[in-house]
């Protein structure tokens, strides 16, 4: 009788292990689908700029990690230029977007990202001297960069994080006076928020 109970326990354990393996595989498959739903699989000529940008980002961070970082505006703009370029290259707009090549509008987003970061690189001294006194060009470029960042966040991480970021932008711009207690504040202008984030 004791041997029979041991056999039953062994069989139950084997069955539960099989169920766990099946459940684990199912969960892993669901996670993989979520993680790769917008990811592009670029080959051929499309992969060369991605490889170059990835190696460039690696070398930049290794160099600044070893020899010291640049001035913060320069460091952030170079990092951001690489990250936005890679995000718009590697993540498609949606599920129905082709995965084998970069779409024309993504190339436009990449170009705008590079121009915005180049503007910071070439005008960082003026940006520092004008701290708090943004001109219309700074505000416009800041708004565009925030919108590009929200779109890159949606593609790479997902809609929930983008919505959280958008909520806090609206909190700064619109909802501040309507919040209770310590969460209440006077609204900030688009100029102030865009310049601060830019």
Question: Describe it for me?
Answer:
The chain has 198 residues and is mainly alpha-helical. It has two domains: 1-35; 42-197, no CATH class. Helices cover 74% and strands 0% of the residues. The longest helix is centred in the first third of the chain and has 34 residues, at 2-35. It is globular. The termini are far apart. 16% of the residues are buried. The chain crosses the membrane at residues 44-63, 69-92, 104-121, 127-150, 157-179. It comes from marine sediment metagenome. This is TRAP C4-dicarboxylate transport system permease DctM subunit domain-containing protein. Keywords: Membrane, Transmembrane, Transmembrane helix.
How many helices? The count is 7
Low-confidence region ranges: none
- Structural class assignment: mainly alpha
Gyration radius from CA atoms, angstroms: 24 Å
The helix fraction, in percent, is over 70%
Q: Which shape, going by the Cα principal axes? A: globular
**What's the number of structural domains?**
2
- Tally of extended strands? 0
Q: Please give the alpha-carbon distance between the first and last residues.
A: 76 Å
Transmembrane segments: 44-63, 69-92, 104-121, 127-150, 157-179
Keywords: Membrane, Transmembrane, Transmembrane helix
Protein name: TRAP C4-dicarboxylate transport system permease DctM subunit domain-containing protein
